[in-house]
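Chain and conformation:
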Amino acid sequence: MGDEVPISDEERRLLAGWAADCAERVLPLFEKAAPGDPRPRAALDAVRLYARDGRRTGALRSAAWAAQKAAGEAGDPSAAAAARAACCAAATPYLHPLATPHQSRHILAPAVHAARARDLAHGRGAATEAGDDEIRDAIERCPAPVRELLSRMPPRNPGRGRPDTLYHRLDGALRGRTPRR
């Protein structure tokens, strides 16, 4: 297990807002594929409420799980990735104060799932410029306190597949170690 990492309420709120912004950019991919399913949108609404008032509630946790279930039922890979981005955004307020790679993954997951949604929508799972654009946007929008929070967590390893590449690129760029491409 990792060392304890202090996480302020303000950092959690800023992380939640940034994560919601990342996920919302690809939400139309889900809503086009499943127009009658409000669960990912509800998850983003719930995490935005948290970002404003800073209260973790059972409704927030339930909304995150509902978005995850919507991802499993989406039937379209890009829509599923978009719903997972919403789920991960709604889960950010529950980040554990532990310096582990798993916790750094939680910080990065909404942006990475958004990039994967774009990849899958534009390139049948391959690396695409659209996915890279999502990563660039996430880097540009990321508040300094979120970068500072990430810097207290272990860095991501490169891995082998496209998702691992996205995690590694985003992680390094937010830490100021890799080009933003």
